[in-house]
Amino acid sequence: MTPLLQAWRPAVFRALCMLGAMPGISHALTETEPLPMVYEAAPEPAERPNSAPAPALRVTSGCTLYLPRIDDTRLNKANVGNLTLMLPTLHATPVKVQSIRAGGDPVEWTRSALQSASRYGLQVVSAVPPSTGATRQATAEVALRLAHSWSSGLNLVSHVVLQASFRMPGTEAVVRQYHGMGTRANWANGNGEFMSVLNLGMEEAVRGLVVDVAALCDGKPLPARAPAP
Questions:
Q1: Interstrand relation of 123-125 and 174-185 (parallel, antiparallel or unpaired)
Q2: Burial of 177 (0-12, 13-18, 19+ CB in 10 A)
Q3: Do 196 and 41 contact (CB within 8 A), yes or no?
Q4: Tell me: the pLDDT tens digits for 187-214?
């Protein structure tokens, strides 16, 4: 064996071992495995892998959020992200990119996430508010604008966007968007892992919405939107 081949043997062996151990090759999502779109809240306080834990959030008692309407307004309702399989080469050559399909009901997924805000002390009611005009309440029509997850190196990442149209008596509706990012380690490219990272992104978006609802219940104005760049 030539010295050149002897020098290459360890590198080739390591590459083959990595290829065999790659979760994307051994257990990849398929087009017949849509995500269930079931919301499960992270342990409190919500741990964010590879980042600091989310700060504790509590809403003062007696605050109620009414949700008369929840819509799915995403442009692409069939898919919730993509999985990129890579070869362990110097330049990380992509092998294939496949879509991740949504198999459950995204509206119910959003509703469950919003109702889970009760963990922060907020009462959430999926109904039109009473005509009595009680204090310490807010009404919002919510739309799911984006739910996307993807593989990035050894991690999974997600981006979820909720849009809320707040309606206050005697004023025009105020629209706000809430972005949530989720990150977690990717062990096997499994459905549960993609669903988990989407739930992390959804939870972060819901937390932003809860902060604004708490402000409305306390009689404070919503923060001004940042000017467009």
A1: unpaired
A2: middle
A3: no
A4: 888 888 999 999 999 999 999 999 999 9
